[in-house]
From TrEMBL:
<dbReference type="InterPro" id="IPR050807">
    <property type="entry name" value="TransReg_Diox_bact_type"/>
</dbReference>
<dbReference type="Pfam" id="PF01381">
    <property type="entry name" value="HTH_3"/>
</dbReference>
<dbReference type="GO" id="GO:0003677">
    <property type="term" value="F:DNA binding"/>
</dbReference>
<dbReference type="GO" id="GO:0003700">
    <property type="term" value="F:DNA-binding transcription factor activity"/>
</dbReference>
<dbReference type="InterPro" id="IPR010982">
    <property type="entry name" value="Lambda_DNA-bd_dom_sf"/>
</dbReference>
<protein>
    <submittedName>
        <fullName>Helix-turn-helix transcriptional regulator</fullName>
    </submittedName>
</protein>
<dbReference type="GO" id="GO:0005829">
    <property type="term" value="C:cytosol"/>
</dbReference>
<feature type="domain" description="HTH cro/C1-type">
    <location>
        <begin position="21"/>
        <end position="75"/>
    </location>
</feature>
<keyword id="KW-0238">DNA-binding</keyword>
<dbReference type="InterPro" id="IPR001387">
    <property type="entry name" value="Cro/C1-type_HTH"/>
</dbReference>
Length: 80
């Protein structure tokens, strides 16, 4: 099986982080498009992060935290 044929398994932490992102957005009454715009990323990518279908780099965590107006530590502070 080639690398292309294998799907990369997403760590459970990323799935939980995605749920947390979605909850933060809901708590703040923001749309995916609003946060994506503030973070300077594509809304489709943010959706993948929220659904736990894509891992994100530390630099992306920082951009998303900035879009929420919080630190990366605050963004990562959730029960997983």
């Amino acid at each position: 099986m080639s690398k292309r044929d294998r799907k990369k398994e997403i760590p459970a932490f990323c799935v939980e982080l995605g749920k947390h992102l979605r909850a933060l957005r809901a708590e703040n009454g923001l749309s995916i498009e609003e946060i994506a715009f503030k973070a300077g990323i594509d809304a489709q990518n943010l959706r993948k992060y929220e659904l736990g279908k894509q891992e994100m780099k530390v630099s992306m965590l920082k951009r998303i935290a900035d879009a929420f107006g919080i630190t990366t530590s605050e963004l990562l502070s959730f029960d997983n």
